[in-house]
Amino acid sequence: MFGPSQLAQRLPSPATALPSAPPPPPAQQQPSAPAVRSVASLSQFDAILTSNRCVAVDFTSANCGPCRVISPEFERLIDEYERNFQPKGILVGTRNSQKIVGVKVEVGMAREIAARYNISVTPTFVFFLDGKQFHDFKGANPQELKTSIELLLFTAYPPHPHVKVKTPTLDKFPSAPILYTQSTNLKAIFTKLAEFTAQHSVTMDSSVLDGIRDGLQAKHETKVKETLVLPGRWAATVSGLLDDLPTEQLFPLLDIVRLLVLDDGVRDHYVRDKDATLMKIMYRCGGGQSQPEELPKAVRLMALRLACNLFASPTSTTYLLSLTRTIPPSSTPHRSVVTALLIETLLSADASVRQGAASLAFNIAVTEAKYRDSGSGGVEGQEEEEGMHEEWVAELVAAVAKAVEVEEDDEIVLRLLASLCHLLRYAPAPIIQLAAVVGVEAAVDAKRAKREGLPGAGVTADEKLKKEADKRAKVVGLCSEVAELVKVGGGQA
């Protein structure tokens, strides 16, 4: 039903030891244009009409008393709606245009403009949508002015059809990223790491590794310290081991690193790291360089858990999903590495790896939903070329939907369905239409039908069976909500 992802196949495969490159400098913030502008020439006026979707014009005159009363309110309303207007699920305005622009025209100084629109009384307000006259009224009526501005904006940016869709099951589902905070047996992990380093005659300072182990044990096992205390050369030691150990023997080190990045200071170090150390790890473990199924299960699982733990803060999340930060020499964006790792593990033969992949999918989806709700169009949504962001989300939707179709473990299915809900809710029309084309609705309907006939939670007193029944009920609810999101959202303009 769903075609295989081509992303991993498109990624280049350079040698393991990738050269380093610093992250790109932050983009210069362009000063925003004023919300209200005064114009006197027809050419200025026409330029504003052609470069902005919504334009409100206040035709005024110097000797008009009512004009002086309404003018400050016009400026206030335009400024307020330009800053705050954001219908749920709709990306309003772009880097090159504003949501709404106010124009003040002094008729005595701009006779050509006044003549074009037959202005005989001031104040007169004229509203334009996509360069065409949309509405007008005469007089200093603040309530009519406010209503007219709202009518213009809601016509230009109608609410997303998903505002009508209720998602009670999703709303009860935790929305925080899934983090792997539980410590494994650190003594055993460090013993296994020492065994691997001895096999390959890796030179290292054992006292530094002992310090890392002691710091992690104090925080995660004995819990005698709330903050992580590490020896001075911890980062260099970890980096050296990552370079020297073969990929198939990285799992104890990855287990250590996924605990380390739960610490704010460690995450900040790696986000600033010019060598892109963490992304190189994921690249080696299935994010582009090798096929995950060729690697031991433990390596794949720890790489996924490491990726999940980087969602612990907004800064490291942005680092992980960045389209502008890349791994040289292939210039592969961080986001492409993470996406390839996800897609190539969603259908793993091992259930624990699939669960890790489902957790990563969920973390990406809830992050995308958060950015979408904020009006930014998704993760780096306003920083990408037109259509690129939609293409990425569409690939995620197709990959997760394929995993839903074949997955039978209800815990994994729940994470996948919640991911689909977050990726689809308030998504642009092309993404919803893609979901319809690849058969998402049919897949979730089949999954729901298979579980609806099974016993409910109230049938048994056995706690384990109750939990299983409750899980099935959640699967049924999320299936219904995914289907409804596809059905309703596909008709948006």
Write down the overall mean pLDDT: 86
Radius of gyration, Cα only, in angstroms? 28 Å
Shape by Cα distribution: elongated
Strand and helix order: HEHEHEHEEHHHHHHHHHHEEHHHHHHH
The biggest beta sheet, please? Answer: 5 strands, mixed
Low-confidence stretches: 1-31
Helix coverage percent: 40-55%
Q: Strand order of the main beta sheet, please?
A: 1-3-2-4-5
Protein model, in words:
This protein has 493 residues and is an alpha/beta fold. 54% of the residues lie in helices and 7% in strands. The chain has 21 helices and 7 strands. The strands form 2 sheets. The protein has a 5-stranded mixed beta sheet, with helices on both faces. A two-stranded antiparallel sheet has the order 6-7. Helix 7 crosses helix 10 and helix 17 packs parallel to helix 20. The model is unreliable at 1-31 (pLDDT under 50).
Features:
493 residues; alpha/beta; two-stranded antiparallel sheet; 54% helix; disordered N terminus
